């Protein structure tokens, strides 16, 4: 039997058709006991390193995740990007798949991911995956629904989550060109319209904090156009109109949340200016 030349790298073993891939799957979570079970069950056959980073759930999320084979770690909430960077650092493999706790990998996408390793190492170091929302009352994504396509499968030596507290995106190394998978992640993001609005309201607080920390000033006139402009963005641009009445309602929620981001930012500037006026009253001699 012939031997590899001395000093040559040994060929990497090809994973079996049903065994775990050389891939870590990581998820950040907080009070997701009603959704994270489906997320974990869909991917636990792909990996021997299933990582859940929890920021203090009180509903049993941690116990459920552990019962489904996840390695659960606590990390207090520092923002979206920093939390995902922390999770990346806990993963054992260089290849990472990131999911949110309300996202499910359907069987056809799981087979496509497994197929990337059919001949060894995937041919690209990063892959974009479509994410399609499934609203309450729907069984599958609408065929004409708007789909985001972020990088979610990648080598951590070729990309890491950016440190932004409000934007969770993978920043790739210069020159890295991601591929695109055909399958889509099923995103069960809306528990109810009320829950969605609560979540978006909290997120708008974080966005206002981020604007303030970066010294960004949004002009006041934007408060008059944010709501109608973002309703049209969601209803027409993101094709919520194909989802009927519920699409109209979710587009309204999105528009309200974008309006709140700017409204809170303008309010903070107004309060800060009034506070400064009290500290530095005008000189009465002028």
What key attributes describe this structure?
alpha/beta; two-stranded antiparallel sheet; 286 residues
Topology (SSEs and partners):
Layout lengths: L20 E9 L6 H8 L3 E8 L6 H7 L3 E4 L5 H11 L4 E6 L2 E2 L2 H9 L10 E8 L13 E2 L2 E5 L3 E3 L8 E3 L6 E9 L5 H21 L12 H12 L6 H36 L7
Parallel strand pairs: 1-2, 1-4, 2-3, 6-11
Antiparallel strand pairs: 4-8, 5-11, 6-7, 6-8, 9-10
Helix pairs in contact: 5-7, 6-7
In whole angstroms, the N-to-C terminal distance is 97 Å
- Order of helix and strand elements from N to C terminus: EHEHEHEEHEEEEEEHHH
Report the major sheet: 9 strands, mixed
Give the mean pLDDT: 90
Shape: globular
Rg from alpha-carbon coordinates: 23 Å
Q: Low-confidence parts lasting 5 or more residues at pLDDT below 50?
A: 1-11
Number of strands: 11
- Specify the number of helices: 7
**Beta strand %:** 15-25%
Structural class of the secondary structure composition?
Answer: alpha/beta
State the helical fraction. Answer: 25-40%
């Amino acid at each position: 039997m012939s031997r590899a030349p001395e000093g040559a790298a040994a060929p990497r073993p090809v994973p079996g058709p049903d065994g775990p891939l050389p891939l870590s799957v990581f998820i950040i979570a907080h009070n997701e006991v009603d959704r994270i079970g489906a997320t974990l069950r869909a991917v636990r056959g792909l990996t021997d390193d299933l990582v859940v980073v929890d920021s203090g759930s009180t509903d049993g999320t941690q116990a459920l995740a552990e019962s489904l084979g996840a390695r659960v770690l606590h990390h207090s909430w520092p923002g979206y990007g920093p939390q995902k960077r922390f999770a990346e650092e806990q993963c054992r493999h260089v290849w990472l798949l990131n999911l949110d706790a309300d996202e499910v990998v359907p069987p056809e996408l799981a087979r496509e991911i497994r197929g990337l390793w059919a001949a060894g190492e995937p041919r690209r170091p990063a892959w974009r995956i479509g994410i399609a929302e499934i609203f309450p009352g729907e069984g599958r994504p609408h065929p004409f629904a708007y789909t985001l396509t972020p990088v979610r499968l990648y080598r951590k030596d070729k990309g890491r989550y950016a440190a932004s507290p409000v934007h969770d995106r993978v920043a790739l190394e210069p020159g890295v060109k991601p591929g695109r998978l055909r399958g889509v992640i099923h995103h069960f993001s809306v528990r109810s319209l009320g829950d969605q609005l609560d979540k978006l309201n909290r997120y708008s607080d974080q966005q206002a904090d981020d604007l303030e920390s970066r010294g960004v000033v949004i002009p006041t006139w934007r408060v008059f156009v944010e709501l109608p402009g973002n309703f049209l963005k969601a209803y027409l641009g993101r094709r919520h109109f194909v989802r009927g009445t519920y699409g109209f309602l979710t587009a309204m929620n999105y528009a309200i949340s974008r309006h709140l981001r700017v409204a809170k930012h303008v309010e903070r500037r107004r309060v800060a200016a009034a506070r400064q006026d009290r500290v530095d009253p005008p000189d009465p001699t002028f």
